[in-house]
Amino acid sequence: MRRYFRLPLLALAIAGGVPALAAKPADKPDAASNMAKAHDQDKQDDAEAGWIKPVVNEQASVTHHSATTHAGPMKYTATAGTLTIRDDDAKPIASVFYVAYTADDVKDYKRRPVTFFYNGGPGSSTLWLHMGSFAPDRVQTAGPESIKPAPYPFGPNPETLLDKSDLVFIDAIGTGYSRALGDKKDKDFWGVDQDADGFARAIMRYVTKNARWQSPKVIFGESYGTTRSGALSYLLQDRGMALNGVVILSSILNYGIRQPGYDQSYIAYLPSFAATAWYHHKLANPPADVATVVAQARQWAAGPYAQALAQGSALDPATRTQIAQQMSALTGLSPQFILDANLRVDLSRFQKELLRDQRLTLGRYDSRYTGIDTDAAGERPEYDASDTAISGAFIASFNDYVQRDLGYKTDMPYRVSAYGLDGFKWDWTHRAAGGNGRGSQSAPDVAVDISAAMRTNPYLHLLSLNGYYDMATPFFGTEYDLNHMGLEPAQASNVAFRYYPSGHMAYLNPDALRAMHRDLAAWYDEVVASAVSGKTSAPATISAGRATGNGPN
Question: pLDDT for 421-446, tens place per residue?
């Protein structure tokens, strides 16, 4: 900037207005000047090399590719770039990184959906969904086992959802390459409502920038991303963008039940414990399939188990013993261990106890995975085997792919997660949507927001995808939350459930991924058909309150 300030003064000197600055002998460059010049040269070199920095101006690297999909060969455009979101006064507040995959040669964009994907945490980037689920390329995962070190298996994904929708993967602010701008800090976006506001602005900016306001729109969240989706479903609608669909994978919608003293969390986990015990051959009389044991566990958990827990310390000894024995038959834990835990087995204890005789622990994100602790007598696992088994492959594959294939270069580090950063603290307060005195919540229950969105938008469809072996967000808890939204039958018919023999990241199981694509393809066809025809609900084949044909009733 000093160079540009000098130009007017030099012009005045030539005109005789002031003494010419050039008459003064030039100063020798000092160390600071040399450093400044070196910095300017580095910036110029970076620009010439194509390195992209987080600036107010939106940046993009656009590449062209082809993919083999269920609809046949497709040409598509990949855009890796940033969206600048602004506050209500048009002041830039954040640069949001995204990668979009859009089909080429689309004749009618009104019939071409666009789906926005994001992971959760809170504080996670969207690396996991991007590299593992429905993008045109993915990490090639197999059974529940650790992936070997590099080179990692990464390549074409025949289950990509490009055959049904354009795909946009977005990183939360403070994660990935997304960063706050101006006087804003990343931590200003770390909260339930702050985060939802940032995502709403990013999605609306993408839609505006790419002229997709008339396209059917879907949001797809995983884990805490489903909490975000709950808030977003109403927030976007309230700002003028009514959604066609919401897909929630491995959901946590109501954090209130996780507070100490509430028994609902123990009830929610029981069917997941039963599925896990069945998988690891810990049941004395196992049924033929996991769906059957889950159905049995659901019925018992919602009946005798819930009734026993509701009595608290007033439960008589005989019934207590009977409940412990019944729970043992479903979970593989000993009756004495269950009695010692007062019929309330915490997740970490179950992870450590079920396979203790084999000196193995269970994964949290996926209980099919097993780990080995240094101390087999410990109270809880020392690490999550289902996390460490795949993280290296996902992180390395993304860093290689984003530069080599997408051509996006930056000297910024890609933050897989903001969790653990200095100053990271999530604001859990939430201003819930709708009436009936919902108001401010200290622990978010965004099922309230989804309910409000579905009651005021009768065309909104909700699809819940669940893994039987997900111990982070148990599927029975999701069923409870969605079945307590207070919807009328017309709106409730737009809610569908699907289940898979996998964990939190259900797409890690290739068979589950194929089944998920099949279910999503049918759902997209009917949701888009509903949008075009104006029908208020989907046909009964997909909108049944529980899974039809691909899971238990």
Answer: 888 999 999 999 865 546 788 889 99
Question: Residue 201: which H helix or E strand, with range?
Answer: helix 192-209
Helices of type H across 16-140: 31-48, 127-132
User: Tell me: the pLDDT tens digits for 279-297?
Assistant: 999 999 999 999 999 999 9
Identify any residues that bridge with 466 across adjacent strands, giving them in sequence order: 499
The answer to whether the bond into 151 is cis (omega within 30° of 0) is yes
| Amino acid at residue number 464 | S
In sequence order, which residues have a C-beta less than 8 Å from that of residue 314 and are 6 or more positions away? none
Q: How far is CA 421 from CA 117, 118, 124, 159, 415, in A?
A: 24, 20, 12, 35, 10
HSE-up of 523 (CA within 13 Å, CB side)? 29
Residues 6+ apart with CB under 8 A from 22: 10, 13
Q: Quick check: 223 and 504 in contact, CB under 8 A?
A: yes
One-character DSSP codes across 297-308: HHHHIIIIIHHH
Whole-model pTM over 0.90: no
User: Collapsing DSSP states into helix, strand and coil, what is residue 190?
Assistant: coil
**What letter does residue 73 receive in the DSSP assignment?**
E
Question: Is the dihedral angle over the CA atoms 8, 14, 15, 19 positive or is it negative?
Answer: positive
Residue 538: Cβ within 10 Å count:
24
Cis omega (within 30 of 0) for bond into 29: no
**Homologous superfamily assigned to 60-145+156-255+395-436+444-543:** Alpha/Beta hydrolase fold, catalytic domain (3.40.50.1820)
